[in-house]
Amino acid sequence: MGGKAKPVSSSRQIHYSKRISLLFSAIFILLVFGYAGVVLFLQGDHPALPELTALFVSLMLVMGAAWNWSLRRQVTSFVDTLDEMVDRAIYGREKMTDFEETLLSSMEHKLLRYIEISKANEQNLETEKNRIKELISDISHQTKTPLSNIMIYSQLLAEVPELDGESRQLVSHIQSQSEKLEWLITSLVKMSRLETGMITLHSTVNPVIQTITRAVSHIYTRAESKQIDIHIECNHLTKARHDPQWTSEALFNLLENSVKYTEAGGKISIVTESNEMFTRVDVSDTGMGIPQDELKHIFKRFYRGHSAREYEGIGIGLYLTRKIISMQGGFITAVSEPGRGTKISMFLPQI
């Protein structure tokens, strides 16, 4: 270690500390018993007794100061040795001690054992992570191909002019359920990739309005079909450190919920505000709202409130949103009141 004197070996340090302790103990015992013997010999009325007492007190004070200095040196030396030992263990350098029956030697071997176990666990985790990556990729590939075929065949079947009304209705159900299954598989794959670290978010300082516009463009058609007005209030100069693609995905999940749970003719507002640390993006709607006892659970994986179960969904949209925002150093909050709508706020870091 640069600029630091190399500490003595652990065995020499232990022997040195024991000798110092024995020396101070012997001197202390001699002083106490010597003074007691002199007092008994002089019978307490000798004129030299005050001077002897003062001398004894002075010697005890000197002994205490010397003992304190010695202990501080021992502690400093022990800490320096321990620091050097930790550095050697971390960087795989040669051990400081052999198999000695000392405290430092025991600590060093336990530390080395702990580091070996940690490295082995880290390697196992990395291996398991790679296996999960391969499994997710296989699942994604193996399910997308047959599902795409089902959707294509159902579309071709719907174009057959000889189908009667009941058959066309059944084909329509197949198409609808296939689309839901495709969305479900895509969402589960995204969630798995985020949780296993397969996806890396690249956060840079970007204008927030572009991210908001991208998210709104994907939900606008659905909102228009329900005659839901989307109002955006965002300064074009407002910026935040975020990944535009994934943050847009998170914002889309919020907007999708707002459109789903807001009655026709309702309103959705997107308002931004910046301070020194965060840029806040509020998504407010005039929807059905969320009861207070359910509000703390809405960001959990697969959670769906009692009043939301009549609507389609599996409860991973808000979970994915919180995961995406937290991975960028931000956080998310929600306030709501049944019958009066919901406001969910995303806080994106400035630095």
From TrEMBL:
Residue stretches making up the Histidine kinase domain: 138-351
Membrane-traversing stretches: 20-42, 48-69
Class of enzymatic activity (EC top level): transferase
Sample GO molecular function, one term: kinase activity
Catalysis: reaction(s): ATP + protein L-histidine = ADP + protein N-phospho-L-histidine
Keyword tags: ATP-binding, Kinase, Membrane, Nucleotide-binding, Phosphoprotein, Transferase, Transmembrane, Transmembrane helix, Two-component regulatory system
EC code(s) of this entry: 2.7.13.3
Pfam families recorded: HATPase_c, HisKA
Gene3D superfamilies the record matches: 1.10.287.130, Histidine kinase-like ATPase, C-terminal domain
PANTHER family: SENSOR HISTIDINE KINASE RCSC (PTHR43711:SF26), TWO-COMPONENT HISTIDINE KINASE (PTHR43711)
Protein name: histidine kinase
Native source organism of the sequence: Paenibacillus borealis
